[in-house]
Description:
alpha/beta; Aminopeptidase; Alpha-Beta Plaits; 2 domains; four-stranded antiparallel beta sheet; 16 strands; about 20% strand; elongated
Amino acid sequence: MTSEAAVAKALEALDPNACVRLAQDLIRVPSVTGDERAVQDLVALTLEEAGLEVDRFDADLGRLKAHPRFPGMEVERREAVLVAGLLGQKGGRSLILNGHVDVVPPGDRQAWHTSPWSAHIQSGRLYGRGACDMKSGLAVAIGAAAALKKSGLPLRGRLIVQSVVGEEDGGIGSFAMADRGHRADAAYVLEPTRLRVIPAQAGALTFRLRVRGRAAHASVRYDGISAIEKYELVEARLRQLERSLNQHPHPLFSRYPIAYALSIGRLRSGSWSATVPDELECEGRLGVPVGMASAEARRQFAAAIADAAQRDPWLAEHPPQVEWYGGQFDAVEVDPELPAFAALRAAHAEEFGVAPELEGAPYGSDMRLLVHEADTPALLYGPGDIRQAHATDEWIAVDEIVQAARVVTAAAARYLAA
């Protein structure tokens, strides 16, 4: 069968409206990171009803956390429920469609115009926590697999839909999938990219930094050492590090003012308003350039801290302490010309009449786990704008869900059935 015939048959079997309805159903099941069992039950049922073989399993948390390459975790969890839908047979080509069901907390409910779990559609936009990041992308993956099954096209291999958990705080779900043996020749990770092809992503390393001071009564603050003031010296040196890391960004990151951002997200200091603070603790993330190993980024971070400490007598005697914890996202890059990726780019060009834009992503994702742990080249491609991810009144354009479903279905048919 020609690729054009296979694509036409798959698209005829696709129900784009069903993809939108599934996205709504997924959004209506709250699944904040660490509490994903209910939504995974829905995913497993949907895959079964579509006629796919389902591998639903509980990851062995203790064993995975003891693994030397465990990707980190920021949320205490009792379980990790994973679901994979399988279509076709082993042997020949294979393709993974990867999406995560966990979402970040909605934050202040009063700031939302309606419930974060409403999944209502208004003026062409689907609203709700996870609408953009990334339950719509997962719905696209399931819809594409359902279309291939319904079309009856004989596959030259296997399609694997991965519904994973824990992406928001490190990636335990995709790590568990690799440990389970779910690997392929290539993967599409359906994160929100505005339907741009992302073959390179920056790394992101979560850190905790502690700076010591010496307490004193505020009226004689000169007898104390403010941990806040000492932190300011360290923070200034970290800004120099950020500038250094961004001197020569990868060409795919040229549109970003700061491709590899170093950001402080939380800061705590002091125990009393009238006491000089004797300790400061902050938490943040270090952006890692494409082409740089995470170990080298950590080394440069530690060197910057040490350099700041050597320039101040107090810090030289009381050096700040650094802890790497939580999500540890490596930078990664793949060849966008690989056959599965060429099929995706061709499908996009057929849908829109123009080749897709190639960009880099300044954030971490499960892409690097597929590449490094599952030996599966992966890129990012999906509906939605990352600026809506984690936002109040999160939304995604319904038309973009439909377009993504058509492109991914056509790409999978071109790669696996032609």
